[in-house]
Design a protein that fits this description.
The protein is α/β, with parallel strands linked by helices. Helix content is about 35%, strand content about 20%. It is elongated, with a radius of gyration of 22 Å.
Length: about 425
């Protein structure tokens, strides 16, 4: 008996997450004898709890194809994970009630490590409650920190943005350093993993071409060594460009910059490292500085997306549907590297329990001996991931994204009311 597919997006979105959605919908539509309808949850798992499900049957092939070019989350995402099954069984009962009401037999969750934990818990709960459900994770994160996959879709495009922006900023600062700015600092995302900072090293084609200082989340920050590295580069080249992970910590393991802490969930919002470093440079070295935070721009920059990244994002969406067709569950789609030069890859699958809520940082062999750059091995790994251009269609000078109808299915259940202590309803 055919069952419906429900696709949902979770966590911080990327420039290519909708390419994965495109892969899901286009592939599912090729198997009408296997699958029923294809739905998308509004705002991830929050939309499932709310019974807010988009029916994609009315979306045109043109609109679905346009998802390849659209940044953000076309169906809405959320910063929300399901609480542990042992203490919050009612959340899972609600999810499965929604699934039963809409004949959902396949749940495809597109997200990062935390989202894979939710997917794992849901697969276990469905098995415990005897509900027939295939749960398949689709990888996504600009942090590139998911386990057991060569890379995470979304990272390649964010890395390309960081590399290009760093190279362009270096040209700007080089032209002004005689009478103006000598140090430019770019803060990039990466709470516990410095992959995007590493991508800043791709701004130079060969090591030593530019006066760069990279600061990794994996290395404890040492103000004296940092100031010495900046001084050496300025004295040699006249200027310096710094790319810093937002999640840098000091020698005691504390984040250098914390904007906000949640007393509800223990969640920490980072930000402000660039400004802090700029003040350090000004006070210790007396150099004029400028700084910027790439923030949402690095993950939304579809106009400079990596062709490799777009292709891989689509491929993991397609592979998820193929796994569902095979009756697989409790797995996440992965990317396997076959060769470096030329770059070759294929999709695979790994056990959700093995990778859920785990983080993979930049390995030591990718970080230069002085701790402020990347090694040839890192370049060999990173370069294929940012290769190729995949420009979106433009109209009147700006990208054009086909509109979706976003038709919600009629509700069949009472409105859901979160209980005291639930994650849902307490964190936006």
């Amino acid at each position: 008996m055919k069952k419906n597919i429900l696709y949902a997006q979770s966590g911080g979105v990327t420039a290519v997450i909708n390419a994965s959605a495109c892969g899901v919908v286009e592939t599912a539509r090729r198997w009408p004898d296997v699958f029923g309808g294809v739905f998308a949850a509004r705002d991830g798992i929050a939309g499932v709890l709310d019974e807010a499900l988009y029916d994609l049957a009315g979306e045109t092939a043109q609109a679905i194809a346009g998802l390849r070019h659209r940044p953000g989350g076309a169906f809405g995402s959320c910063r929300l994970d399901l609480d542990p099954y042992a203490t919050h069984r009612h959340e899972y009962e609600r999810v499965l009630e929604v699934f039963a009401a809409h004949d959902i037999g396949h749940f495809l969750y597109n997200g990062g490590g935390g989202s894979m934990l939710t997917a794992t818990r849901l697969a276990q709960a469905a098995a415990d409650m005897g509900y027939p459900l295939d749960v398949i994770g689709i990888p996504k994160t600009i942090d590139n920190d998911l386990y057991d996959t060569d890379t995470s879709p979304g990272f390649g495009s964010a890395a390309k943005y960081v590399a290009v922006s760093t190279r362009e900023a270096a040209c700007d600062v080089a032209s002004m350093q005689a009478t103006s700015t000598k140090v430019f600092i770019l803060e990039v995302m990466g709470r516990n993993a410095g992959w995007l900072a590493a991508a800043g090293g791709l701004a130079e084609r060969d090591a030593g071409e530019l006066p760069l200082v990279l600061l990794f989340a994996e290395r404890a920050f040492d103000a004296e060594r940092f100031a010495a590295a900046v001084r050496e580069r300025v004295e040699h080249a006249g200027y310096c460009v710094v790319v810093a992970s937002e999640g840098m910590r000091d020698g005691q393991g504390e984040y250098l910059s914390v904007r906000q802490k949640s007393t509800v969930r223990g969640w920490t919002r980072l930000g402000g490292v660039a400004a802090q470093l700029a003040e350090l440079v000004r006070m210790r070295l007396g150099y004029r500085t400028h700084w910027a935070v790439s923030d949402y721009l690095q993950r939304a920059a579809r106009h400079i997306a990596s062709q490799t990244d777009v292709e891989q994002a689509y491929a993991v969406g397609r592979a998820a549907v193929e796994l569902a067709r095979q009756g697989r569950s409790g797995v996440m789609v992965t990317l396997r590297r076959l060769t470096d030069e030329p770059y070759g890859w294929e999709t695979g699958a790994t056990d959700l329990q093995a990778i859920a809520d785990r983080e993979r940082g930049v390995p030591d062999e990718f970080i230069s001996a002085d701790g402020f750059g990347i090694t040839p091995l890192a370049r060999r790994y990173l370069r294929p991931l940012i290769t190729g251009e995949a420009y979106p269609p433009f109209r009147d000078g700006v990208p054009e994204y086909p509109a979706l109808r976003h038709t919600l299915r009629a509700r069949r259940l009472p409105q859901y009311t979160p209980r005291s202590g639930d994650y849902y309803g307490t964190v936006a």
